[in-house]
Amino acid sequence: VILSDVIEEVRQSVSQDIDGAEILHSLLNAAWLQSLLKVYECLQRYLRDSPAPALDYSSGLSLEVHLPKQFNVVIILVCLFSIKALLSAHDTIALKDYEPVLPPMPEDLPDDEEATRIVCLVKNKQPLGATIKRNEITGEIFIARVIHGGLADRSGLLHAGDRIIEVNGFPVDGMEPEQVIQVQARSHGTIMFKVIPITERPVHNQTMLYVRAMTDYSPQQDPAIPCADAGMSFRRGDILEIVDQTDALWWQAKKLPSSTACAGLIPSTNLLKRKQREFWWSQPYQPHTCIQTCEWLSTDICSFSSAGFRRSMRLCRRRAHSTTQPSCNTRCPSSCYSALNSPYEEVVRYQRHSEDVHRLIVLLGPSGVGVNELRRRLVEMNPNIFQGPVPYTTRAPRGYEESGREYFFISREVFENMVYHNRFLEYGEHKGNMYGTSIESAKEVLNSGKICVIDIEPNALQAVRTHELRAFVIYVKPPTLERLRETRQDSYITTNYYVNRPFKDEDFQEMEEAARKIESNYWQFFDHVIINNELQDSCVELLTAVMRAQDEPQWVPASWIRPTSES
């Protein structure tokens, strides 16, 4: 019958002067013909490879078994009974018909009847991994999406766009999606769907994409998500593997390292930007209009630096905190906006080659937490490996100072010109003199083969996160308030008004508050976090993290490896 239909279709096409190649192409792509060929292949394979017993009566072989006379009678009987039982079991299995008994096709089947598929899935502890939607006009229920790695996806039997007719024998047309889910939830062991498959499935050309989350997200707090249970929460700094971007609004992703095969729904970049603009949840960070390089950020402590130098840098830093920051009137680099304006930052796995320059090591933390001391000790461990850049200043050199060693001494006009051309990672003013750390100074240390170590204020992060410096950012976090009181009872702090004085409780509280602000705004940029509980332990952890940054693969912004013309 089918063959006659094919001949008739070809005859009509020829009579209508349709191109022969077009006829052949449409015929070979017809779904019914492809299904027929699959059935034919299965039948041929069954006829060719169908199992058959070697003998119809294998248990008769037991009568031909002859054992030597010297065998014990008991052993002979046991052997005979065992062999006969084995062969009888073979006969029972080999002669039994295990083929399913299919009901006959109804004779009154309409010509326009849609092909249906019965899908039976075995339930386990994992969710089905599919969402459904309802056509509000017709009341029909469809598969909205199949979650990557879920039970439905692994089965390969359900696809987005399939229409669900029945669930465990219950017709679902006209039901609300919640009612269909309840029917499915009452299933035990197996769940059976009767579906009309989608005729043409979209081809998914997915590319591997990894991103760093630059914001927090909770599906339970998102009223717009299609299915909160299918959503995946994440926090700033988490690495996400995007496995499906078919939906323009809702992507499917896994959080690395992943302990489950099933992906979760997350908002796409455009959707999450829109949500942030609508302020439907509290903003995790407040983007800056540019790098606030107008604050002074403390530079390195070299082995030849004096105590007076370190003290002046700390005083300058505290003064910068207490003054109003002017707006940046210079041209900000494009990287100033990239990470802060997007909820996701594309990342790649980066392994530094031995011939490449080292990554810049950046330390930051609230004032008084011990950032300067950790950096100083790291440099002192091995000055042949670790070094900091020499800063610039407009003040006059003292008698023992030498340009290029303690500082580069330049005029204010030259300094301001360097500011205008964005040559500083950070800069500021103290007692009428300008101080700054230049990008070139850091690159000189790296190009010499050493590991450059600096400490900065958080608002200079975007200046160091470039494909040239490839900064590895280490955040030094204060311990609990009780631990601060215990470990800092014999320590001193430098303020605007006192060169050195003992720590007070308000200093610890200010440190904790500053830490909360830093973490709230910049957590997504931290590659490693050290809780400075015990200074010696923190030094060991710092050294380990620094060497790991140079020798082990790390997630870095994709723009560092594939820099654009603007970066």
UniProtKB/TrEMBL annotation:
> Domain named PDZ: which ranges?
118-199
Q: Which SMART domains match?
A: GuKc (SM00072), L27 (SM00569), PDZ (SM00228), SH3 (SM00326)
Keywords attached to this Swiss-Prot or TrEMBL record, sorted alphabetically, are: SH3 domain
UniProt domain L27: residue ranges: 1-51
State a single Pfam family of this protein. L27
Q: Which PROSITE patterns match?
A: GUANYLATE_KINASE_1 (PS00856), GUANYLATE_KINASE_2 (PS50052), L27 (PS51022), PDZ (PS50106), SH3 (PS50002)
Q: Where is the SH3 domain?
A: 206-276
User: Domain Guanylate kinase-like: where?
Assistant: 358-547
UniProt xrefs under PANTHER family: MEMBRANE-ASSOCIATED GUANYLATE KINASE MAGUK
The entry assigns this protein to a family as follows:
Belongs to the MAGUK family.
List the protein's name: Membrane protein, palmitoylated 4-like
